[in-house]
User: Which sequence fits this backbone?
């Protein structure tokens, strides 16, 4: 039975080591950074750009249910949602609920919600 589980144990261990080492290095290094330092500003900029790249990819090249929706609807939801986020004083819940409402309403009006 152990020979059947061995590949899974190796994969789990290798996956844990590959990610956990970087997490611990981040914690150790992050504790030494000053709040306004250039290094921390760079880390924030990289993290923000990665999130925005994934968001842009989902808008321009969607998969799943969004794949069949028109690009104009996805772009409208993203732009209006971002504007609402900024106008609300950068409240995340507003930046999530507004574009989802626009997408759901648009899908319903276009007939995607009718089965």
Assistant:
């Amino acid at each position: 039975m152990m020979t059947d589980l061995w590949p899974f144990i190796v994969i789990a261990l290798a996956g844990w080591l590959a990610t956990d080492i970087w997490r611990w290095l981040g914690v150790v290094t992050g504790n030494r950074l000053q709040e306004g330092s250039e290094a921390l500003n760079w880390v924030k900029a990289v993290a923000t750009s990665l999130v925005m790249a994934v968001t842009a990819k989902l808008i321009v090249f969607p998969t799943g249910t969004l794949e069949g929706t028109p690009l104009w609807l996805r772009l409208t939801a993203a732009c209006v949602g971002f504007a609402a986020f900024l106008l609300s004083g950068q409240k995340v819940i507003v930046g999530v609920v507004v574009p989802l409402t626009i997408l759901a309403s648009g899908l319903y009006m276009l007939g995607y919600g009718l089965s």
Remarks:
- DSSP finds four helices and no strands in the chain.
- The chain has a mean pLDDT of 88.
- The helical segments are 2-32, 38-60, 71-87, 92-109.
